[in-house]
Amino acid sequence: MRIYKVGGAVRDRLLGKPVTDIDWVVVGATTEEMLAKGFRPVGADFPVFLHPKSGEEYALARTERKSGRGYGGFTFHASPEVTLEEDLIRRDLTINAMAEDDQQNLTDPYHGQRDLDARLLRHVSPAFAEDPLRVLRVARFAARYAELGFTVAPETLELMRELTESGELEALTAERSWKEISRALMEDQPQVFIQVLRDCDALKVLMPEVDALFGIPQPEAHHPEIDTGVHTLSVLEQAARHQQPLTVRWACLLHDLGKGLTPEEEWPRHIAHEHRGLKLIKAVNERFKAPKDCQELALLVGQYHTHGHRALELKPSTLLELLQSFDVYRRPQRFEEFIAACEMDARGRKGLEQRSYPQADYLRGAANAARSVAVQPLLEKGFKGPALGEAIKRERLKALKAYKGAASA
Q1: What is the pLDDT of residues 234-273, one digit of tens each?
Q2: Between vectors from CA 305 to CA 299 and to CA 308, what angle results, nearest 5°?
Q3: How far is CA 265 from CA 221, 231, 268, 400, in A?
Q4: Run of H or E residues at 180
Q5: Taking the CB of residue 29, how many other CB atoms lie within 10 A of it?
Q6: How confident is the model at residue 265, as a pLDDT?
Q7: Cβ pair 164, 200 in contact under 8 A
Q8: What is d(CA 144, CA 150) in angstroms, rounded to the nearest whole number?
Q9: CA 208 to CA 140: how far, in whole Å?
């Protein structure tokens, strides 16, 4: 029995990055031997065990063979005869196909260290094209390591393109896709993830609504970058730069989908794109079964982001409707995330990344003014039921008028 550290732990140590999760592969062992040493079995499809003390995962060396469509369409073979090199060749990228023993002696049969030095994401073998999830994984690694200068090797990008054209991407489940998408959006450069998907034609399969934005012009006076797709990538980049949560990043990606439906004769203006985009945002939300908080914020940002930009011009009654739509009284955090998404949208424009966004503090002040209305005095006056609701609304409107007046003074 020989035990090796494999995959990401080896890769990140060589890159000088912190190692968090460690995967181990066991060569020359049987299930019975693992059980005899106190390991606990957890793998349903192939032999994976938890270490009796550390709880880390140890997998028996295995080979795999394509047997059906999609991410799960494989049969596995694990036995003491499977070599370390045979186990490593089934992995996706050369930089993930290295192993080291307890003395840190490196086993690198597919030249992963060479590709680390060359800053290349390269597939290990043609079997790469058997697993559609790898298209998303490679794009995610590109987003993670873009700051180090990594790019996707041309031949790997071509394989990703072939995988896309084969129709295999459509066999991915919503859950698997969302897991990769959500992880990619939380990388340091999530816009690279979207760009790589576009480069291999996968974006138009996975998110045709986002892909459709590229090449659609916007008014240069407001959007010096002009192209709506380029703007979307810039907004996503700003969201990562400002360390926004997943909800905000997802909303940033989808906020302008309605511009993809603007008739060409109306370009570069996009009147009512906010409302047109709602059905597209809903479709993308449902396709990937995004978490409820991500779905809700994306729809609200899609519908109201231009309200956010025009906050200082809004009538008190419109401002009140906006606050009511977000339920700022019970869900203050959601309104904060809306403000953040609006600010990222404003900063995601060429040359305007550092421009201040006074609308943010103005909207926070408006929310505080509306929240400051006390309900108890109205109850003491005898208001109840629908009449109480109307009275609260009148008082909040009065508070917002006072707030707007003070802000304008």
Answers
A1: 999 999 999 999 999 999 999 999 999 999 999 999 999 9
A2: 135
A3: 19, 21, 9, 40
A4: helix 174-185
A5: 22
A6: 96
A7: yes
A8: 9
A9: 19
